[in-house]
Each structure stands twice: as structure tokens, then as C-alpha cells.
Amino acid sequence: MIVICCITTISCNRTQFGKKAQDTIVTHEFPNTNWAFEERVLTFGFDNSDSTANYQIGFILNYDKQHVTMDEVPITVTLEAPDGMETFVTSTMRLKEDNPEYMKEVNGMTELEVVAFPKKNLNRKGLYNVKIYRKADKADNYGFNKLSLRVSKLKND
């Protein structure tokens, strides 16, 4: 297996993306607003039927900014292609920063949009898996409502 490594800081390499009709969104809800230690690795799957298009792959974290028990969440995001090839990025999601370009209030909760892969060609058809690994301490972390994967097909250049 070949592993391609890209190390970046998502907070400095973010491109806000608006919701489009062709977005694929997969959501994981945290029971009792707790991103438990046992859920430190979350896996999202999506099917790709267009092996010629470029995609933007990111996350939307929905949390209570006033009650979240962490200031930041160090993460590794791994994209696994149908053939097993993996690409990953590491980053830190900063939860307490005030950044209106990437944060918004929705029903009393904060939504933080993070782009992990700004432009990624998914050159294989089939099931892709995206894993997000929370590298924080072994404690449970409260104040988190849900984490959604967003895959957006980009227009041709």
C-alpha cells in the first residue's frame, strides 16, 4: 500500500464553500453532545461515480461554543480510495476563535466549516472512506453536537 502524506494547517488553508445541490453530506451525531474518546476515529463513506472531476472535501463541525470543553481539536484526516491508496492531512480545528468567514451561528450552535482537501481528483470510481482521527487527550469532550462530511464537486477549470 502506498501512502501519500500532505501536512497542512487547515486553519490557514481554508476555503469557505457554500452548499450546492450536488454536495454529498454524511453526518455523525454525538450522543449527549459528547465526542467520546471511544469515537476518536470517525469514518464517513461516499460513492464516487465521476473519476474525471475534482472535488472539495471538508467538514462542518456543529458545537456549543460556550460549553465546549476544548479550545482546539488536533486532527488527522485520511482519504482512502477504492483501491486502498490513502492520502492524509493533519491540522487543528480552532473552536474558540472568532472567524466569521468560517463560523456561523445556527439555532444557537456554532458551525465551523473546514476544508481538508481544497481540490482533489478522485480518479477511481467506487466507495471512498474519509476518516477523521481526533488526536486530543483520552478524556471525553462535551459540547459537540454533530460532525458532517461535505464532498463538493468543483466546476471544471
How is the secondary structure organized here?
Layout lengths: L2 E3 L18 E6 L4 E2 L5 E8 L5 E10 L8 E9 L5 E9 L8 E4 L2 E13 L4 E9 L6 E2 L1 E10 L4
**Quick one: biggest sheet?**
5 strands, mixed
Report the count of strand segments. Answer: 12
Strand order of the largest sheet: 1-7-6-10-4
Q: Over all CA atoms, what is the radius of gyration?
A: 15 Å
Mean pLDDT: 84
CATH class membership: Mainly Beta
Q: What is the overall silhouette? A: globular
Cα(first) to Cα(last) distance is 31 Å
Low-confidence stretches: 1-17
Q: What is the share of helical residues? A: under 10%
Range of strand content: over 45%
Number of helices: 0
CATH topology: the name is: Jelly Rolls
Secondary structure class reads mainly beta
Identify the CATH architecture.
Sandwich
The structural domain count equals 1
